[in-house]
Amino acid sequence: MVGVNKTVFIIVDGMADLPIKELGNKTPLDYAIKNNLHKFLRHSELAYPTVLGKMAPQSDAGVMADLGYDPIKYSTGRGWFECLGLGMKPETGQLSIRINFGSVYNGMLKDVRVYMQEDELEELSNEINDRVKISADFDFKAGVGYRAGLVLRNGGGRFSHFVSNNEPGYTAKFFGNKIKLSFATEINNRRIQKIKAIRNEAAYTAEVLNDFILKASKVIKSSKVYNERVKKRLPVPNYLFLRDAADSDPGLEDINRKYGRKWVTVAGMPLEKGIALSAGMSVLNVNENKNIKEDFEEKIKKITYAISKFDAVYVHIKQTDSLSHLGKFIDKYAVIEAMDKIIISGLSRVMDPNKDTLVLTCDHATSSKLKRHINSNIPVMIANDRFRSHTSFDESSCRTDGNKSIKKAVDIMPFVMKL
To answer: Over the Cα atoms of the chain, what is R_g?
Structure first.
């Protein structure tokens, strides 16, 4: 046993889902065997809150809400967190953007995600930095899988986040002069669109971004990575999809001061690290290992260390969302089972059931059949000695037996921090 009044807050990306016929009309969370979780369910509270009302949220909005930060109050665009988590150090007045390496054919969307190896991403990133010339100084940095970040530093005009996304399936919405969020939508039009200025002040920004996309795409198609993948008959990137440009610091309140506890995150994805850094958390970096067993074993080691040194630990698990986008619902429930066997089992050995609190939830629901984020409530389990017993943790049980006072995701953290 370690410490006193420790909190472990696990957000499993896109864990919630819709019932699937092949799983006996159960969701992957319901279908998965979770024997170790039952040790925590013996004293637990359930909840089934909304995230962003009627809109299907991205991970940035979902994670912010889960951690107690209302996205409608704080979000200036996901690009800020993405680039901060990549170590790019964006500043207010600059433009930070999330990038996908994707592919198009005859002006039509072929794939918004072309997964590559780390060395391929790095090589393409270096070529874009070296060979692309536009009217602004910029930094381009490879992320994980198919992701990257772009920061426009200086240019011939003022940068503005009032620009559209060119990635189909994510629609930017603005709330006043500062707040910006993108929401997941069905892809109805697969024709590639240019980035547009939503306000006149963003005309220069849209011009620079469209110029960057055109020139970067030419560099990609002349690269060694592109030609090698063509020879190997692998999916090839030939286009960049940009979304969620941000031009200012969201100004998240320091979570350590807010709750009087010392927080740390165990995360490998840039977005989640960026949100944690913005909130004032320390970061214990982990690599996103494709081998699930090795990935979870590394995470539980880092979590165990974090519990011994900090008061509260935010843990992010990515794989469930990625598998949902690929339609792999069998692999999705297998990941949930592996999490139970390795991470939840490990926590049962180091957390004191009489003092500590475990929170298990997700940032949003991702449908494995639709292969996209959906507007749905999220399941929440809060394990603490003061609560009664529950026998199951899934969407249905949380909907039926959930604490009605936790109506929104932003209500979770204040409730937990009072325990």
So the answer is: 21
